[in-house]
Amino acid sequence: MAFDIVQFLESIVKLEMFDYLSKVWAGDVPSWLINGVSDIAGVLIICTFNLLIVLFLIWFERKIIARIQDRIGPNRVGGRYGLLQPVADAMKLMTKEDLTPAGADKIAFNLAPLIVVVAALMMWAVIPFAPGVSGTNLNVGVFYILAISSVSVVALILAGWGSNNKYALLGAFRSVAQLVSYEVPMIMALLIPIILAGTMSTQGIVIQQSIWYVFVVPLSALIFFISALAELGRTPFDLLEAESEIVAGYHIEYSGMKFAMFFLAEFIGTLFMAALFTTIYLGGWRGPGAVQYPILGLFYFSLKMFFVYFLFVWIRGTLPRVRIDQLLNLNWKFLVPLVLALILVVALVSKTMEGAEEWKTAAVLLLSNLILGLLALDFIRRYARQQRSESEEVVEVEETIDTQTVTTAAH
Amino acid sequence: MLIEWQFILIFAAIAVVFPGVPILIARFIRPSKPNPIKQQTYECGIETVGASWIQFKVQYYIFALIFVVFDLEAVFLFPIAAALNQLAFFAVFEVILFVLILAVGLAYAWRSDALEWF
To answer: Which of A44, A373, A401, B56 has the fewest CB atoms below 10 angstroms from its CB?
Structure first.
């Protein structure tokens, strides 16, 4: 087939460039070879995109946090807006000496940063970027994502254990306690869109979202958002690497490029959670005209993904850190019972209204979500009141003790 | 359906190489002058006493155990959730019963102070 520029442009709009180019140039090559090459190309595109976008995201985050904190942020490197700041950071980290502490477990120490990045990258294989475009359309997409995100937890223990440092080990344990605790509400919150869509495949969930799920089950979206923040170890849940407090937790002993790998994995993971939230709750690539012109679908997806990333950065710049016992209490005593109740309510409602029209089901689900959310807020209010009255009792007791000591001293 | 996992295999093979490349490049660029003082364990300036693989609180283990129970519950709930459209109405009651049994477990752990961080 001859190369036709008009058809090539059409294939770009339809995001079928590979099919078109393979038909033009390799008409009689066996199809398994073409599939293999296009898979390899897809992997390279995803990995390169991630590495390059992290450069932009570091700059974006620093600028936004700076503006929230009433300062300017990087503005020297690379022109007036400091656009090459992340490049300077990367070059600095690359030229630092790689100190391995004496007595460190070499295999564990060196393997941990690699596993963290590999896990963060491999989750991108099932995200649908446009109609018909995703790494692969697994029928258990969401399940695969949850499985891979549990692998990165193992890497933390390897990092802490292999560092030959008591505080790295303790930091690693606390990190794992937090990450592992918050996986439970995340998994359960992801069950709810699966009930609504009837499939675990990410592309399938996007196709089923004629009404975005954030408007149908907002409580589930909120629980997933909070658990994602805690899974990534971002403020307000970032006591694992509290940069201004306990040095660095499990990556105390890392320097140079290996530290850069942990850093990279955090940014890739954050962007991935933004992409996952977009896919499951904000309708992924859906938007006006996305099915006819898939490149518009890619555009909508990017827009929504960067908006959710902006929300993550906004929350980081605004909220203070929580303590570890507050963190774990929030999870096991509030989020997990709430998400279990939510699963029951959604299963009941969606099964009861099975034959009804779509907007009626959506409205009833929305209503039940809001009622459950208000009940949860009521519980919080009552708990806070109880806490306050307990702390007031303690203050009163202390004051009476003080007056007694004063009177006895006067005698 | 199994053929769709071919992409994952290729991804795993390439993604394992990807973080290795910058580390390998950095090995040729960075200085390497190890001496025993630099390689001491970091503890904010003071010297470490004793081995680094210390005992730790049992609380970490308890949280991991509770996580395992709830993770398995989620694993069992996933197929039911994906197929809830095609099941009879009675399936909802079965789901409710399943979740309630595990919620009773959570309530027991709560009351016996297993969820406290001492």
So the answer is: A401
Contact of A51 with A19, CB cutoff 8 Å: no
Beta pairing class for A133-134 and A128-130? antiparallel
Element (H, E) at A394: helix A358-410
Q: For residues A248 and A167, what is the distance between their CA atoms, to the nearest angstrom?
A: 9
How many pairs of residues across A and B have Cβ atoms under 8 Å apart?
216
Task: Clarify whether residues A162 and A16 are in a common domain.
Answer: no
Do B85 and A143 lie within an 8 Å CB cutoff?
Answer: no
Say if residue A323 is in the same domain as residue A282.
Answer: yes
How would you write the pLDDT of chain B (118 residues) with one tens digit per residue? 788 888 899 999 999 888 888 888 888 888 888 787 777 776 666 666 666 677 778 888 888 899 999 999 999 999 998 998 888 889 999 999 999 999 999 999 989 888 887 6
DSSP per residue, A71-134: S----STTTTTTTTHHHHHHHHHHTS--PPPTT--HHHHHHHHHHHHHHHHHGGGG-EEETTEE
The pTM of this model reads 0.90
- Record: contact B92-A347, CB cut-off 8 A: yes
A117 contacts: CB under 8 Å, gap ≥ 6: A261, A264, A265, A268, B15, B18, B19
Same domain for A160 and A199? yes
Judged on CB neighbours under 10 Å (0-12, 13-18, 19+), B2 is exposed
Q: Which residues contact A233 (CB under 8 A, 6 or more apart)?
A: A175, A178, A179, A240, A241, A266
Q: B10 near A43, Cβ under 8 Å?
A: yes
- A184 and B71 Cβ atoms separated by less than 8 Å: yes
Domain annotation covers residue A410: no
Q: Nearest-CA residue of chain B relative to A323? A: B117
- Comparing CB atoms, the residue among A164, A184, A343 nearest residue B71 is A184
CA distance to A8, A11, A29, per residue, from A2 (Å):
11, 14, 16
Range of the domain at A42: 1-94
Contacting residues of B for A257, CB less than 8 Å apart: 22-23, 26, 30
Decide: A51 and A86 in contact? Cβ < 8 Å: no
Are A251 and A159 contacting, i.e. CB atoms less than 8 angstroms apart?
Answer: yes
A92 at interface of B, judged by CB pairs closer than 8 A: no
pLDDT confidence of residue A27: 67
> Nearest residue of B to residue A325 by CA position?
B117
Look up residue A109 and give its two tokens: 């120490």
CA-CA distance, B30 to A257, in Å (whole number)?
10
Query: Which residue type is seen at A296?
Result: L
Please indicate, yes or no, whether residues A138 and A201 belong to a single structural domain of this protein. Answer: yes
From A113, which residue of chain B is nearest by alpha-carbon distance? B19
A116 with A254, same domain: the answer is yes
Cβ-Cβ contacts under 8 Å for A59 (sequence gap 6 or more): A74, A82, A83, A85, A86
Contacts of A49 (CB under 8 A, 6+ apart): none
